[in-house]
């Protein structure tokens, strides 16, 4: 578990940027494996810290977007639902990039080092799988602490999941058609 990076005496700073800095300071030194890449474990920790704080920063926006998505779902407006979904992903990506910049500035590290490390480790299947597992655990830990277990009936959860999966599949098909 990565939670020791962001908890200080059981409490995380309310400001995600300050919490990011505190977690980076707690980790202390981020070692370089060569002039353009971080060591794998340090890169993994940095990515985990950045992701956690980006999720926290995005949380208020996500709640607003979820309300819009629920309304689109209730109106059975799949196009609007997909538009909201794309916009949500774009906003989260922008926030994540902002957190990367903040982390690199705090560490006095070039952003290119983060990007080169990301590219390097995502090209190798073994390290890619490890990074995905760390990202999943970071998300699971965050959402487990913020949201209680779902109390909706199973049928409703499945209905929403099927709609969401159908929408994502349709979006993927449209994107693929647009690329060709």
Number of helices: 6
Helix content, binned percent: over 70%
Work out the count of structural domains. 2
Reading the helices and strands in chain order gives: HEEHHHHH
Number of strands: 2
User: Roughly what is the average pLDDT, rounded to an integer?
Assistant: 86
What is the molecular shape? globular
Unreliable stretches: none
C-alpha end-to-end distance: 42 Å
Radius of gyration: 18 Å
Query: Mind summarizing the main beta sheet?
Result: 2 strands, antiparallel
Structural class: mainly alpha
Share of residues in strands: under 5%
Strand order of the largest sheet: 1-2
**What is the oligomeric state here?**
single chain
Quick recap:
This protein is mainly alpha-helical and 180 residues long. It has helices spanning 16-27, 40-74, 78-107, 111-123, 125-146, 154-179; strands at 32-34, 37-38.
Describe the fold and architecture.
With 180 residues, the chain is mainly alpha-helical. The protein folds into 2 domains: 3-147, no CATH class; 150-180. It is 77% helix and 3% strand. The chain is built from 6 helices and 2 strands; from the N terminus they run H-E-E-H-H-H-H-H. The chain has helices at residues 16-27, 40-74, 78-107, 111-123, 125-146, 154-179; strands at residues 32-34, 37-38. Strands 1-2 form a two-stranded antiparallel sheet. Helix 1 (16-27) packs antiparallel against helix 2 and helix 1 packs across helix 3 (78-107). The longest helix is centred in the N-terminal third of the chain and has 35 residues, at 40-74. The termini are far apart.
